[in-house]
Amino acid sequence: MNAPATILIVDDNPTNLKLAADVLECAGHTVARARDADEAQEVLKHTQPNLILMDIQMPGMDGLTLTRLLKDNPSYQHIPIVALTAFAMKGDEDKAREAGCHSYIIKPIETRKFPGQIAEILAAPKSKMDIL
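^ thats the sequence. predicted structure below, dont judge the formating
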């Protein structure tokens, strides 16, 4: 089991946000929450997460746009970003990878598998891209 991490979850759906946060907090992680890209950028001003879980479909700035923005910023480019999406269409994986996502998890999350998926991502070399 990995050491507990600080994880930022960015998701506009309150149910998805709460579920992911509850599961990760039960696994011992510290969770920061943001409901959209603007809120995520505010949280990042005072939190340095080990991992960001990024919803792709959000109102305003979408998750891929925010991922590109973060990957262009030297302060954040080292943080692995995992795309969380209910839209697992052909090509979405490529779009996530091109935007700078490290991994890809399909929603709804499987609560029994989720902590292990996150532990695996936190332990993985940062150059590897996985579909979980």
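The CA atoms of residues 85 and 106 lie 5 Å apart.
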